[in-house]
Design a protein that fits this description.
With about 450 residues, the protein is mostly beta strands. About 10% of the residues lie in helices and about 35% in strands.
Length: about 450
């Protein structure tokens, strides 16, 4: 008998032993004292439904034109090494670009507007910049595993540009800039030959010609030492640009910004290195498919990392031949007691199902349609937990209105975040912190 079947068999025995002995009447239901004795419902709270869960690696995740793009390198003691870089086009701000007679470059700076970070702010990662040799295509969807060919020459002015998530925010000639940015000086020779020397040419006539001539940049990240960090880059913010500072025979202090627009193509590529450096308990589940420790710990990671599959295999059998009204069904996820001082938990989780495990199509639970506040998923710091209200989903299964599909637990907005979570499993040493489904119901005569 394989491990998965063993777990289900044991769960079945536990379920049959506990179902009718572990239900308890709820004593403090809001509103009961407003009802007459004849109208009161015999509400029961049941929290011992068999839960089968395990973690697995995510499949391909689209990262084209997301609201935020990931850039950085982290070395997590539990999830191992993750590295993310950004591929992007840059467009002309004006057509027929001409720098004027006697134009000379002063500097070339890549500026990235960022809106947050994940990891250790005291330890840097390296940024390297490469010119793309192949174009980005507007009619193509790019995934976290996609790569575009680029030249081998690193274009940063200093060979080692160290990025800290506490960047300089102002440039002497950009006094209106207010959002945090990373400013990366590039080689002046590249700016001169690539742009200044093409002043007034057909290559700078319009964006069609320009994108054929300058296909874009690959902004790469590399680790240094320590835990590292990821930054969340807003590619469409006005402060994100490739800016050429120059002067000509008539004027000093000139500049032209090559920009990223809504019509631009960009995406970020993420590498988790097959979790070679991850903790052994995590690798057991997602690499070896060994689920012997799922009773203790489960895992969720954003950025196309890890999700947890949750199933209630006997929920329909529990209410067989009974007329039952489900008043509330809550899935309760409790954060483990690991160190989250640097690699902190996600602000919110999400829950969906798939009709086929190999399918890329995800379906919303009916409870989701009642609104985010009703559905839940936000992190509660006081309880160190997440709660999802899935009443309609469970009711539909019991009433044979829908199939009992396994649920997928993921980080909300996973393509634009790097957070991760270790959660208690289905039967940990601290039983009150276990992953559980809590159902409040009444029997109908």
């Amino acid at each position: 008998m394989n491990i998965r079947k063993s777990i289900i068999f044991v769960s079945a025995i536990i379920f049959l032993a506990l179902f009718f002995t572990s239900c308890k009447e709820e004593e403090n239901i809001v509103g009961l004292d407003l009802q007459s004795e004849n109208d009161k419902l015999n509400l029961v709270v049941w929290d011992t439904a068999s839960v089968y869960a395990y973690s697995q690696k995510e499949t391909e995740m689209p990262t084209s034109k997301t609201t935020l793009s990931l850039l950085g390198y982290v070395n997590d003691p539990i999830f191992g090494i993750s590295e993310s870089g950004i591929y992007s086009q840059f467009r002309l701000s004006v057509n027929n670009l001409n720098f004027g007679a006697g134009a000379e470059i002063d500097s070339l700076v890549l500026t990235l507007s960022y809106e947050g970070f994940f990891g250790d702010t005291l330890l840097p990662f390296l940024i390297k910049i490469y010119e793309l040799s192949d174009p980005l295509k507007s009619n193509e969807t790019y995934y976290h595993t996609s790569h575009i060919n680029h030249n081998s020459l690193n274009l940063t002015e200093n060979a080692n540009f160290y990025c800290y998530p506490t960047p300089k925010t102002l440039h002497p000639t950009d006094t209106m800039q207010t959002k945090p940015v990373i400013r990366i000086p590039l080689q002046k020779d590249f700016g001169k030959t690539k742009f200044i020397d093409k002043s007034g040419s057909t290559e700078l006539a319009d964006n069609a010609n320009f994108l054929n001539y300058f296909k874009g940049l690959f902004i790469a990240a590399q680790g240094v030492n320590g835990k590292g960090s990821m930054i969340y880059v807003n590619m469409l913010n006005a402060n994100t640009s490739l800016t050429l500072y120059y002067h000509n025979n008539e004027k000093k202090g000139l500049k032209h910004s090559f920009i990223v627009k809504d019509s631009s193509v960009y995406f970020h590529s993420i590498n988790h290195f097959n979790y070679d450096n991850a903790a052994s308990s995590l690798k057991k589940q997602i690499i070896d498919l060994d689920y012997s420790e799922t009773d203790q710990q489960l895992y969720v990671q954003a950025s196309a990392g890890v999700k947890t599959i949750i199933h209630f295999p006997y929920i329909k059998e529990a209410f067989k031949d009974k007329k039952v009204a489900i008043h509330k069904a809550e899935l309760i996820i409790t954060r483990s007691d690991d160190d989250y001082s640097v690699f902190y938990q996600p602000p919110a989780l999400d829950l969906y199902y798939k009709k086929d495990t190999s399918s890329t199509t995800a379906y919303l639970l009916p409870d989701y349609l009642l609104g985010a506040t009703h559905f839940g998923g936000e992190y509660n710091a006081s309880g160190k937990e997440y709660r999802f209200r899935i009443t309609r989903y469970i009711q539909n299964i019991i009433m044979n209105k829908s199939e009992n599909y396994p649920l997928h637990l993921v980080v909300k907005g996973a393509a634009t975040k790097a957070n991760r979570l270790v959660l208690y499993g289905t039967n940990p040493d601290f039983r009150n912190k276990r992953l559980r489904l809590e159902i409040t119901y009444s029997l109908i005569n």
